Amino acid sequence: MRTSTLLTLGLLSILPGPALAALTPEQTAQVIKTLDERQKSVGDYKSLAYMESKERDKADVVYEVAIYRRGADQKLMLLFLQPKAEQGKGYLRIDKNLWMYDPTVGKWERRTEREKIGGTGSRRQDFDESRLSDEYTADYEGEDKLGAFTVHRIKLTAKEGVDVAFPVMKVWVDVATNNMLKSQEFALSGKLMRTSYYPKWQKLYSESKKGEVWYPQEMRFYDEVDKANSTLIIMKSVDLRPLDANLFTKAWLESKSR
Amino acid sequence: MGLIDLQIAARSLLQHSKRTGFLGAAIASVTILMVLLNGLIAGIDDMMLRSATTLMTGHVNVGGFFKVTSGAAAPLVTDFQKVMDDVKGEVAGVDYIVARGRGFAKAVSDTATQDLILGGIDIRTENGFRQVVQPLSGNLDDFAKPNTALIFETQAKKLGVKVGDSLTLSAPTARGTNNTADVRIIAICKDIGLLSVFNAYVTPGTLRSLYQLKDTATGALQIYLKDHSTAPLVAAHLREVLEKKGHRLMEPDPQPYFQKLMTKVNREDWTGQKLDVTTWMDEMSFISSTLKILRALSFLLTLILAVIIVVGIMNTMWIAIRERTREIGTLRAIGMQRGKVRTMFLLEAALLGFGSTVFGVTVASLIAIIVNAAHISVPESVQMFLMTDHLNLAIHPGGLASAIISLTLLVTFAALYPAWRAAKLQPVTAMHHIG
User: Fold this and answer.
1) Is B276:B75 a contact under the CB 8 Å cutoff?
2) What is the three-class DSSP state of B150?
3) Phi and psi for B314 in degrees, rounded to 5?
4) What is the mean pLDDT of chain B?
5) How far apart are CA A252 and CA A21, in angstroms?
6) Whole-prediction pTM value?
7) Which residue spans within chain A are E strands per DSSP?
8) What is residue A246's three-state secondary structure?
9) Residue of A163, A169, A188 to mutate when probing chain B, most B C-beta within 10 A
10) How high is the mean pLDDT of chain A?
11) DSSP letter at B249?
12) Does the pLDDT at position A109 exceed 60?
């Protein structure tokens, strides 16, 4: 059902839509900034996600992952809960380093922030707070139609000196809600690497933010290089209540696999 | 002990031709098995050296890692020309030195993907490469053209590609940014064992563009020596030299560079350039465990055979002594000393051992020559361990000599106790013996 919806979205996106006035550079930057602001939780964030990974010549794998974030100091932790073989595996960001813990060998490995998570098509930034306005410069490309939605198509180019997984992105932002519905990520060579769809958005009231926090309830990532690979992430629950003060430590993550 | 003793021993062996033939055949069979088994292991060793030093490593490598941040490392030697200048003239017995790019990428065809270890090579400077890598289709000369790739037949089969087809190589740069390069396959080469399963080659320019590297960076300087056995000494000397010239060096660690990159370097808290001097044995340590198991199995088999020989010889000697008790008594009665009797039996065993092992070694060598000439293909699963697609038995003169000496000594040793017992017999008792 979802695939057919996305197919329709894709097909409709190539049809011409009603023309909107082009956004100025300031307005374009504001759209991206708003996108970030709406997802910022300021306080703590905890969610439980199901992640289904499809890879060529491999059996589909479904993961259950707990995501912990602390907006104040940009901390992030991912803890794999399922399947059994991956239980206790986790990622922890301390300062600018992303560490991966493998309970089968009991060792921590430093990883680049830009690598794939758990070998799936997802990356750290898919679970993290959106920082598009900090990392990219936005250029308005035009207005577009994505199914029934009228969207802004914006090209994002990585800022000088900022390390990102994809130096160029294109995002399709819903004019009505300012939610990102689709994105495409490009390699340095200009080759399209990944297309992502965000068909469902949810919001929650945050006490710490004193406002609403938006999050994509469903994310679909399609590998454009190896087209047989895709990843689906569904956020089952999100909790914005404060987390334990000492949660973002290696010891805490290690304790989960004992 | 002289020629006469030898003549007596030989005559005695000939007199008991049935027993001698049976025992000789057993010793010769063990010799053949031992020589062929050692030939198989030596063959794997030879192929490993040949394929490894063509596909992955020099006899000595000056590689290294560059870390932009402490969490992002790449197998790089920056400003490699300076390192080359520091190395040149410091090593004796160098055949040639090449700068080779190192990298990893996912190769994507229309139908499949494969993770590959990439080598960035300039075919014009790689003297040894052309001698070992044999194209099945395509032309190695085309490999000098930009954005071209050379792959092996197993990879071509897996990716479903032929010469002229395109492949997309996808890899993150040293800063973790994703990049791709489209390359055209110019040659599909014959497999060279395990290493050709995951090693593929592109031009240095393609590798640099994929990883966004400057022209002054390379993966490693691969040093080829006239005598590869001096590699550990050369590596140790180079470490000293490079350290004195102000380069930061990694601690010697017998692991291939990609294992260090994945398990060690990213965990360490440093940034910038560190050089890493390794030998071809270090770079191949990930498959040496297979060889160790094979060697251990071979040793165990040889040990079992040796025990069987010792028991067989001792038993046969006992029978011989029983049969020849009256003869021993007569010899003792006419004045032969105990020591001489002992020597006579030992000489018989030594002569039997020597003759049988020489025969065994000759037969084994002939078998090896026939097997190597027949180019017998082995199954794909076995190719991984043999490092080649056909059976290769490497018979070295040193190995043959050691088989002859060790087995002759073993046979002589087995005869020691029976010979000693024979020498202890009293002449009168021995002469009255009814056997």
Assistant:
1) no
2) strand
3) -60, -45
4) 87
5) 52
6) 0.74
7) 44-54, 61-70, 75-82, 90-94, 97-102, 107-111, 136-146, 149-158, 168-174, 180-186, 192-206, 211-223, 230-239
8) coil
9) A188
10) 87
11) B
12) yes
ipTM reported for the complex, 2 dp: 0.79
In the numeric block, the tokens 């000492």 are attached to: A246
Give pLDDT tens digits for B29-83.
989 988 998 888 888 878 777 888 888 899 999 999 998 887 788 999 999 999 9
Q: Which residues of B touch A (CB under 8 A)?
A: 69-72, 106, 108, 112-113, 168, 170, 172-173, 175-182, 212, 263, 266-267
Intra-chain end-to-end CA distance of chain A, in Å: 40
The residue behind tokens 């932009």 is B68
Alpha-carbon gap: B265 to the closest alpha carbon of chain A (Å): 9
What DSSP line would sit under A149-203, residue for residue?
A: EEEEEEEEEEPTT---S-SEEEEEEETTT--EEEEEEE-TTS-EEEEEEEEEEEE
> What whole-number distance in Å separates Cα of residue A224 and Cα of residue A228?
9
Token couple for B333: 């009665």
Report the amino acid identity of residue A160: E
Structural Rg of chain A based on CA atoms: 18
Contact A114 B212 (CB under 8 A): no
* Distance of alpha carbon A192 from alpha carbon A9, whole angstroms: 19
> What tokens appear for B384 in the block?
């991984």
Q: Half-sphere exposure of B112 toward its Cβ, with a 13 Å CA cutoff?
A: 13
CB B136 within 8 A of CB B153: yes
Rounded Cα distance, A214 and A201, in Å:
7
Q: Annotate B274-343 with three-state secondary structure.
A: EEEEEEHHHHCHHHHHHHHHHHHHHHHHHHHHHHHHHHHHHHHHHHHHHHCHHHHHHHHHCCCCHHHHHH
